């Protein structure tokens, strides 16, 4: 009987010591080590790839933002503020309904097939809007000029980048709305166009938030 009790006590003690050691190693030391390495070697990425302007964090280069006018009475969705470069559509899964303190767009794709009527209607309406919004008195956009990323959302619905083609399509409208020269805005787009990662991964892209920050500085004479 005593041997059985002693054996059980030893097993419980060993299990408790193992639990204590693993808790310290995996719950304290490992997270501290990973956090330390991340902060030391990848500080920017570890903190969410934050983008700052005038000393304030204005967003992340990994998450897209919308540039809309204030919502007017009777409107379900705000109209885009056309003095800014516009991002990809962000249909996603809809708006946040849990945390009502913040207006958030939930991440996710529409999950509709290519022949879905709703998706076809969305793309058709989006293309018409892109043509209308980006045509100026001296330049008319043709439907064939509209790239795919201008009328479709990404898999997450929160893509922070647009294609150089879509950025170039918006140049004349942005220049006109901000009383800038077309060549000035074109140069801005060129300066903020990133190539393929490692020279062969992905596609060339333009981060909309970074581009709009640079645009604001240009408009303000910075």
Q: What would you say about this model in short?
A:
With 222 residues, this protein is mainly α. The chain has helices at 2-41, 43-46, 117-134, 164-177, 182-191, 208-219; strands spanning 50-53, 56-60, 161-162, 193-194, 205-207. The protein has 6 helices and 5 strands; from the N terminus they run ααββαβααββα.
Keywords:
222 residues; mainly alpha; three-stranded antiparallel beta sheet; two-stranded antiparallel sheet; 44% helix; 7% strand
Structural class: mainly alpha
C-alpha-based Rg, rounded: 25 Å
SSE string, helix = H, strand = E?
Answer: HHEEHEHHEEH
Beta-strand content? 5-15%
CA(first)-CA(last) distance: 85 Å
How are the strands ordered across the major sheet? 3-5-4
- Strand tally is 5
Question: What is the global morphology?
Answer: elongated
- Average pLDDT, all residues: 86
Low-confidence stretches: 96-100
Quaternary state of the chains: single chain
Helicity, in percent?
40-55%
Individual helix count: 6
> For the report, how would you describe the main beta sheet?
3 strands, antiparallel
